[in-house]
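Reading is simple: the token line describes the chain's fold. The lines below illustrate.

. . .
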Amino acid sequence: MNIKQFSELVDVSAYTLRYYEKIGLLKNIIRNSSGHRYFTQKDVEWIKFVKRLKDTGMSLETIGDYADLRHQGQSTSGLRMRLLEEHTELLKDKIDIETLHLNKLKEKIEYYKKVIESETIT
């Protein structure tokens, strides 16, 4: 598929895809005889994973490190797993902090509900 089709399918702009290729997140993209990029289902799955990592807060630099290891092949599986484990721990810590914030906001909402309720009674 061409870059426009790929962009629509993965919901990432063509500009961003070109940037990802430039910084090494997309490697070995096939080009047709005219030099236009041609993307495969493997590229679709990879970009979906990149988006997931990005959505969890992983930096493009770290995703790039992961992409470099992936490109080196199966022998880097342990390093890639370690990188994902480290990110998982960071994500868990972030979730714990966000859960604390959420609970504090809920407490404040309950406080205001009581304040409002007491105002309507008097």
Observations:
- The mean pLDDT is 95.
- The chain is about 75% helix and 5% strand.
- The domain at 3-121 is CATH 1.10.1660.10 (Multidrug-efflux Transporter Regulator; Chain: A; Domain 2).
- The beta strands are 30-31, 37-38.
